[in-house]
Amino acid sequence: MPRALTIAGSDSGGGAGIQADLKTFQMLGVFGMSALTAVTAQNTMGVQGIHDLPPDFVRQQIDSVASDIGIDAAKTGMLSQPEIIEAVVAAMKEHHIEKLVVDPVMVAKGGARLLVPAAERVLREQLLPIAYVVTPNIPEAEALLLRRIETVDDMRDAAKRICDMGAQRVIIKGGHLPGGSSIDILYDGTNVDELHADRIDTKNTHGTGCTFSSALTAWLARGVEFTMAVGRAKQFITAAIAGGISLGHGHGPTNHWALMEQQDTVTKQIWGHMDGELHEVNGNQ
Ligand SMILES: Nc1ncnc2c1ncn2[C@@H]1O[C@H](COP(=O)(O)OP(=O)(O)OP(=O)(O)O)[C@@H](O)[C@H]1O
Ligand SMILES: Cc1ncc(CO)c(N)n1
């Protein structure tokens, strides 16, 4: 069974962070494990409190699962403090984690900081160079590069510049760009690609970034090639946003079960991919 680890914060509201990641892993048939970095008191209205965990204890959680269960792919989300980033980097190196998806979470939708400003430099200098892929949204890419991103051309340029900082691959998520479609830019160190989806008119976008990066991690854990894994992660997040549940009074969560509920082409495509892979595995035995 493919195994994926999320190293991230807990969202008590269940739509983002560790909770979104584990729900997504489960939906995509991957065994999910977690190393908590922080616990937040959070709901659809915002973040009411943050309690960071000690860096050594973050490290201990990673060591526990790596030394026993094993990790096919890992992702990072909210890392909160510079010392936590340092602990995570040391653990990733020691356990030789190659498929590392870095979601450089900095600020929650309502504006609360999930990474102290002093940690941005450590993230840039220590975490990016060990990332298999980094997935900033537009404000995060702006913070990493200290420059504005206003157009799709700016996003393409930013993807190359972030790759120059050491990440092997970059996806700039366009959820924050105004316009009728939701464009993500994908750079694999050689080619730039665009991923398009119609923009869904909804306020229920809490945790979209976490859900997208955990779907990508799940497909990488399953051994799917990078570009295909990104395409399937995009299908998953688009279905989850379109899945339309409305909870709470603010930015509600996406629907991680959307694929189970809608027996449409997206469901058939995604479950079909998995079915195909299972047949391949069985056929090779
Ligand atoms: N309204 C929307 N309609 C369709 N796709 C969207 C919409 N909003 C975001 N997306 C897609 O969701 C994915 C996540 O992008 P986004 O920019 O929202 O991440 P994020 O800001 O990191 O999310 P969060 O901080 O809430 O976890 C991207 O693939 C993006 O294109
Ligand atoms: C714990 C946590 N991680 C990430 C995000 C970003 O969506 C959030 N709101 N909360």
TrEMBL record:
<dbReference type="GO" id="GO:0005829">
    <property type="term" value="C:cytosol"/>
</dbReference>
<keyword id="KW-0808">Transferase</keyword>
<dbReference type="GO" id="GO:0005524">
    <property type="term" value="F:ATP binding"/>
</dbReference>
<comment type="similarity">
    <text>Belongs to the ThiD family.</text>
</comment>
<keyword id="KW-0547">Nucleotide-binding</keyword>
<dbReference type="InterPro" id="IPR029056">
    <property type="entry name" value="Ribokinase-like"/>
</dbReference>
<keyword id="KW-0067">ATP-binding</keyword>
<dbReference type="Pfam" id="PF08543">
    <property type="entry name" value="Phos_pyr_kin"/>
</dbReference>
<dbReference type="InterPro" id="IPR004399">
    <property type="entry name" value="HMP/HMP-P_kinase_dom"/>
</dbReference>
<comment type="pathway">
    <text>Cofactor biosynthesis; thiamine diphosphate biosynthesis; 4-amino-2-methyl-5-diphosphomethylpyrimidine from 5-amino-1-(5-phospho-D-ribosyl)imidazole: step 3/3.</text>
</comment>
<feature type="domain" description="Pyridoxamine kinase/Phosphomethylpyrimidine kinase">
    <location>
        <begin position="11"/>
        <end position="255"/>
    </location>
</feature>
<comment type="pathway">
    <text>Cofactor biosynthesis; thiamine diphosphate biosynthesis; 4-amino-2-methyl-5-diphosphomethylpyrimidine from 5-amino-1-(5-phospho-D-ribosyl)imidazole: step 2/3.</text>
</comment>
<dbReference type="GO" id="GO:0008972">
    <property type="term" value="F:phosphomethylpyrimidine kinase activity"/>
</dbReference>
<keyword id="KW-0418">Kinase</keyword>
<keyword id="KW-0784">Thiamine biosynthesis</keyword>
<dbReference type="InterPro" id="IPR013749">
    <property type="entry name" value="PM/HMP-P_kinase-1"/>
</dbReference>
<protein>
    <recommendedName>
        <fullName>Hydroxymethylpyrimidine/phosphomethylpyrimidine kinase</fullName>
        <ecNumber>2.7.1.49</ecNumber>
        <ecNumber>2.7.4.7</ecNumber>
    </recommendedName>
</protein>
<dbReference type="GO" id="GO:0009228">
    <property type="term" value="P:thiamine biosynthetic process"/>
</dbReference>
<dbReference type="GO" id="GO:0008902">
    <property type="term" value="F:hydroxymethylpyrimidine kinase activity"/>
</dbReference>
